[in-house]
Amino acid sequence: MKILKRNQLIILVIGLMLVTAGYLNYTTDPNKTTYTTSGETLENTYAGIGDATLVNGGALVENEEIEESDIQNSSSVTSIEGENIEEEKNTSVETANQTNEDYYTESKLERDNMYSQMLESYQKMLDSTSVSEEQKAIAQTEIKRINDNKNAIMIAENLISTKGFKNVVIFINDASVSVVVQEENLSKEQVAQIQNIISREMKAEIEDIHISSK
């Protein structure tokens, strides 16, 4: 019996020594992994993993925002391009309108300069002592004709303008009268109105009146 108790005691002591050695080995192992370093807990570590996940999620959101920004920028560029095209169209229309305006202004200026030069030439004939009386009479008749035409043109252009035409210019070539108005499409009624004015004010036959638009 004593031998049995002695063996049991030895086994118990050996078991206690093994447990103590194992505990000491665990608490002093420098390579062990711990989740309490610097006050961190296992919950904080998982929280850190959660944060990393959120950061990754944030990166995805940023990418989505970038893509949305790219789409918005693309839409803005398209809108700007559309505006530029529209501005170019408007500019082209304005340029065309300005070209038309210039045509009427320049045509009237050239016509009036021509009349002024003709009047000046005929007046020199009248003032010249070397010109015969017959030639002076012709010069006097031409001066009257030119002045009459200038007055008739001025009246006719003003009357045609009152019919709604923005610009009009009239040219006389012997018995023929040419009228140019700023209108895309002339109706029969508009043509008739212009013909009546020219016929009445300039004493021209209807078949000698030529009307065009520009």
Task: Give the helices and strands, then pairings.
Layout: H1 2-27, H2 42-127, H3 133-161, E1 168-173, E2 176-181, H4 188-202, E3 209-213
Parallel strand pairs: 2-3
Antiparallel strand pairs: 1-2
Helix pairs in contact: 2-3, 3-4
Query: What is the CATH superfamily label of the domain at 89-213?
Result: Stage III sporulation protein AH-like
- The CATH topology annotation of the domain at 89-213 reads as Helix Hairpins
State the end-to-end distance.
Answer: 139 Å
Largest sheet: 3 strands, mixed
Uncertain runs: 23-62
Assign a percent range to the helix content: over 70%
Strand portion: 5-15%
Dominant shape: rod-shaped
Structural class: mainly alpha
CATH architecture of the domain at 89-213: Orthogonal Bundle
Q: How confident overall, as mean pLDDT?
A: 74
Radius of gyration: 53 Å
The number of distinct β-strands equals 3
CATH class (first level) name of the domain at 89-213: Mainly Alpha
Which sequence of SSEs, written as H and E, runs from N to C? HHHEEHE
Annotation field: number of helices: 4
Subunit arrangement of the protein: single chain
In the sheet with the most strands, the strands line up as 1-2-3
